[in-house]
Amino acid sequence: MDLNPRQTQLIDAVRLQGPVSIESLAERFGVTLQTVRRDVQRLAEAGLLARFHGGVRLPGSTTENIAYRQRQAMQSEGKQRIAKAIAQRIPNDCSLIMNIGTTIEAVAHELRSHRGLRVITNNLHIAAALSTNRDCEVIVAGGVVRSADQGIVGEATVDFISQFKVDMALIGISGVESDGTLRDYDYREVKVTRTIMAHAREVWLAADHSKFNRPAMVELGHLRDIDVFFTDQAPPANYSDLLSQADVECVVAALA
Questions:
Q1: Are 221 and 107 found together in one domain?
Q2: What is the pTM of this model?
Q3: Same domain, 123 and 242
Q4: Both 81 and 176 in a single domain?
Q5: Closest to 86 measured CA to CA, from 245, 208, 223
């Protein structure tokens, strides 16, 4: 679904506050209860929020990610800005590993006019997007293809990626906790991403603001394991402190 600004802000409010009542949302946004109920109904039907008596919460859990198509729709404008900011920083004639995730897929679309790239990926969506660029060589990792999102995972994927050492790893993440821990849902995907990070000279993390304080079951690493963090809004104060302490460059993709 296409989200209007209020619906996007509503999702953000629930993500930051946790379960919240319909009444408090109506007061927050200065609209009627009926308006909030209509928004919540639409968002619940799209799987972006979950309703309970008198209120609303996020549908996700620490064990299962939001469905791929729903993730594509969420924060799409912010992801696009992040993708453009990353693409502007990537030079021609360099080597990349790009992992699974809708933000990283957006980056791939922004790289279609680059020249001389050699891209290794465990994401079939990225492979399809970049294979249209004749000046880009795409190398697809072997392994098990997840039907949910066309990501490739497993021990064969780890072994394949271990052969390379690239200029930059471009990675997405499901959540960043308040202590700087990076988290995701599938332990097989996490093993692949750890390998990607270990076989790159620089690690660039792309995560929109909705990933802050989002829980997930599997620990991937820590903010100190990355070199550059790209996001679409200024991080909360505690994250800014963590990034500064870890000497991580934070790039906030500007509004157009």
A1: yes
A2: 0.75
A3: yes
A4: yes
A5: 208
Which pLDDT tens digits describe the chain residue by residue (256 residues)? 578 889 988 988 887 777 889 999 999 999 999 999 999 999 888 778 888 788 888 775 544 555 545 555 556 788 999 999 999 999 999 999 999 989 999 999 999 999 999 999 999 999 999 999 999 999 999 999 988 889 999 999 999 999 999 999 999 999 899 899 999 988 999 999 999 999 999 999 999 888 888 878 899 999 999 999 999 989 988 899 999 999 999 999 977 6
> At which residue do the structure tokens 């004749």 appear?
134
Strands (E), the chain: 20-21, 50-52, 55-57, 95-98, 117-121, 136-140, 144-145, 152-153, 166-172, 175-176, 181-184, 200-206, 218-222, 228-231, 249-252
Look up the domain containing 141 and give its range.
70-252
Residues 171 and 79 both lie in one domain? yes
